[in-house]
Write a structure and sequence with these properties.
Blueprint (H helix, E strand, L loop, with lengths): L15 H34 L3 H12 L11 H40 L3
Helix pairs in contact: 1-2, 1-3
């Protein structure tokens, strides 16, 4: 899988099948990024705050989803982890959005460039 390998602007627009394959690859990459971030959050909440796996999942998933943590942190290390993880989740949201939208935006811009040739 060649993530972010797009055709040059002098080449014709990719076929529909190639576009869907590229989009599927990028969605798969986004899922892997989200799963990795979720795993890091779960392990952090489990090891630092000694939450159950289910509570650790809930807190990590809520932060990744933009809702905020569910359980209050009781240790300084837990509060520090939760703050850093919350900031990282915001960046991960931007990263995943870019990964998923890149093929779509490239196709639109490429189609506009192809139509603009003299």
């Amino acid at each position: 899988m060649a993530l972010f390998r797009f055709e040059h602007h002098t080449r014709p627009v990719a076929t529909h099948a190639a576009f869907l394959g590229r989009l599927a690859g990028n969605i798969l990459a986004a899922i892997v990024i989200i799963a990795g971030a979720l795993a890091i959050g779960m392990i952090g909440y489990r090891e630092i705050e000694h939450l159950s796996w289910l509570d650790a999942f809930l807190n990590a998933a809520m932060l990744l989803g933009g809702m905020g943590p569910v359980d209050a942190m009781h240790t300084d290390a837990g509060k520090l982890f939760a703050g850093i993880y919350a900031l990282a989740c915001g960046l991960i949201f931007v990263l995943v959005s870019g990964v998923v939208l890149a093929p779509v935006l490239h196709r639109v811009l490429h189609a506009l460039k192809v139509d603009d040739t003299p």
